[in-house]
Amino acid sequence: KVANERGSIDGFYSDFKVHLTGILGGINTYEDITVGSSPFVWRNTHPYTCVVNVIGGSVTSIEMRHEHYLSYFDTGLTQGLIDVPAGAYLRVTYTAIPNMTIVYRY
After folding, report:
1. CA-CA distance, 80 to 21, in Å (whole number)?
2. Is the pLDDT of residue 24 over 50?
3. pTM, whole model, 2 decimals?
């Protein structure tokens, strides 16, 4: 039985399909992030760097924390594309909910 970070064969197939689409179908595939309450924290659980696009809403800060550090650092951005290394956390503080999308780059 093949397992992955999601612990299921369905999750493995889904991850493989995203990877294969990236290789065969171009350099980018996309996935929307369901944004929760502010400050919203998203972790890159993939074994590769993802680019997160934060757009719209009313964002007051976007901060990042690497996997082995305790403190967040301010990116200086309130929207745009942010490279998020494997294992890193992205914290988005807002007053009106933004749209967030993961851009998988291969």
Report:
1. 24
2. no
3. 0.71
